[in-house]
Design a protein that fits this description.
CATH superfamily of the largest domain: Zn peptidases
Strand order of the largest sheet: 1-2-4-3-5-16-6-15
Radius of gyration: 23 Å
Low-confidence stretches: none
CATH architecture of the largest domain: 3-Layer(aba) Sandwich
Helix content: 25-40%
Distance between the termini: 23 Å
Strand content: 25-35%
Largest sheet: 8 strands, mixed
Number of strands: 16
Number of domains: 2
Order of helices and strands: HHEEEHEHEEEEEHHEEEHEEHEHEH
């Protein structure tokens, strides 16, 4: 692997930073200690630093010459997961864990900021370092609304996700649709409660709900082109009070994802198809319903030109043979940035069987191979110089 001397000299501090942030995970828009630590670190580098969007932090590095502005982003929030890794630097915040590598993202971007601040005389243009809160629930949208892409105007944006499904030493990149659109839904099926010994006097909501859970699956296999990936998943169900009581209402929550621009208001969009099935099934069972969608992020689409910059950097760092053409259905609100300005988001492989770093993201035993952190920093540096100076 090709890593610069500047990055190698920072590796010990880089790993230290990752572990410090891992010990202090905080949920979205509650990243108070995380935000303060980031703010002070950037201030000490002599950068122009401000807090925004509740707990977000933005720092600006002005190069020696005027030019374009490139933005690098790291997400800061953790998840409501109880850690089971047994690591000596495991979470000290009970019930909260960095189970999605955001601790590593922060450490890599802070390290890149430190190296770039020492090389500002070599930079033509500006670098904006953005530490974003609440990625797990669409925090990027609020940063855009608060003007993170303005003053100065951002010309391109790059982001990295450490990714355990990809082997350490490899990098996943793809132009075009890269990560899925994501929204959650809440569905209440309303019947009429009664005694389980006299079901004919009630309207049992279990039957229509069971039918709905099965029937909406045909949307992704029978109604939408199989080359347009679509996922409808149910993750939570609640209702009922006793085994011999027919409840009056059941509630189910889930998510919908697709890897194309499908979230419009036409009758063909997945949401409208979903409600058509819900409505007709409930009518057939004499039940009513309430359905609400909660958009999280749109499809993340990587710009062709900025992706070529990332691919060139990846060839230098990882070698052409270790670049993987990769897309996935996971949601990522970085899409809010690439919807406004050209940009590329990509995965740096962090999985390693020998180090027990193969658990999926959001798992209580999730961990990353820390040896890959330096490659992420090097990718940040090359992306900046290739965009601004070439």
């Amino acid at each position: 692997m090709n890593v610069s001397k500047d990055v190698l000299e920072m590796e010990e501090e880089l790993i230290y930073l990752r572990r410090e942030f891992h010990k202090m995970p905080e949920l979205g828009f509650k990243e108070f200690k995380t935000s303060e630590k980031i703010y002070q670190y950037l201030k000490d580098l002599g950068l122009e630093v401000e807090k925004t969007t509740k707990t977000g932090v933005v720092a600006l590095l002005r190069g020696a010459e005027e030019g374009k502005t490139v933005m690098l982003r790291a997400d800061m929030d953790a998840l409501p997961v109880t850690e089971e890794t047994g690591l000596p630097f495991a979470s000290e915040n009970e019930g909260v864990m960095h189970a999605c590598a955001h601790d590593g993202h922060v450490a890599m971007l802070l390290t890149a900021a430190k190296i770039l601040s020492e090389k500002k005389d070599e930079i033509k243009g500006n670098v904006k370092f953005v530490f974003q809160p609440n990625e797990e629930d669409a925090g990027a949208k609020y940063m855009v609304e608060d003007g993170v892409l303005k003053d100065p105007e951002v010309d391109a944006v790059f982001g990295i996700h450490l990714w355990s499904p990809i082997e350490a030493g490899k990098v996943g990149i793809s132009s075009g649709p890269f990560m899925g659109s994501h929204e959650n839904f809440e569905l209440k099926v309303k019947g009429q409660g009664g005694h389980s010994g006299n079901p004919h006097t009630a309207v049992d909501p279990f039957l229509p709900l069971a039918n709905i859970i099965q029937s909406v699956q045909m949307i992704q296999t029978r109604e939408i082109d199989i080359l347009k990936p679509t996922l409808i998943m149910f993750g939570q169900i609640s209702g009922g009070t006793a085994p011999n009581v027919i409840p009056g209402e059941l509630e189910v929550k889930g998510s919908m994802r697709y890897l194309y621009e499908g979230g419009d208001d036409s009758e063909e969009c997945p949401e409208k198809r979903f409600e058509r099935i819900v409505s007709n099934i409930c009518k057939a069972h004499r039940a009513d319903y309430e359905l609400e969608f909660f958009p999280s992020n749109s499809t993340l689409i990587n710009n062709e030109k900025t992706t070529k910059i990332v691919e060139k950097a990846a060839e230098d760092v990882f070698g052409k043979e270790n670049i993987v053409n990769y897309v996935c259905m996971a949601g990522e609100d970085f899409a809010e940035f690439t919807a406004e300005v050209p940009g590329t988001f990509y995965f740096v492989g962090a999985g390693n069987e020998e180090k027990d770093c193969t658990y999926p993201h959001h798992h209580p035993k999730f961990d990353i191979d820390e040896d890959v952190l330096k490659y992420g920093v090097e990718m940040h540096l090359k992306s900046v110089f290739d965009f601004l100076n070439k």
